[in-house]
Backbone:
């Protein structure tokens, strides 16, 4: 079963939550503590990134959308400043 391992940090910005088993349909259950910490709820959309051929990383889509929106605004400001300095 999925057993979270509390206070076992892999690095300062990450945490090891335990294991998950791939089911018949290729689904996995995200450990409860991870869902709680990420504030995941049913229906939330996640981005799944492949890292090499044997590792996955998961990010909350709403968080990525906020980051990209913020970066887009900053890039527009930078482009305007660059145009004004020509």
Residues:
């Amino acid at each position: 079963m999925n057993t979270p391992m509390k206070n076992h940090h892999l690095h300062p910005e990450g945490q090891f939550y335990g294991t998950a088993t791939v089911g018949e349909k290729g689904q996995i259950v995200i450990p409860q503590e991870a869902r709680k910490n990420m504030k995941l709820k049913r229906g939330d959309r996640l981005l799944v990134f492949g890292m090499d051929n044997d590792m996955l990383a998961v990010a909350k889509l709403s968080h990525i959308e906020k980051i990209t929106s913020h970066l887009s605004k900053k890039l527009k400001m930078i482009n305007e400043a660059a145009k004004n300095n020509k």
The longest strand covers residues 46-51. The chain has two helices and two strands. Residues 1-11 have pLDDT under 50 and may be disordered.
